[in-house]
Amino acid sequence: MDVGLPVILGGIVLAGVFIYACYWVVRLAVRHELERGNRL
Hints:
Layout: H1 4-39
């Protein structure tokens, strides 16, 4: 159990960072599309 717990916590942290990064990429892409749409 002492070996598995850090692995599980590490996996949760990596998953959270991955989701957070994807969220920012989508948000920046959407904002870029909206800005480009407003210019037209």
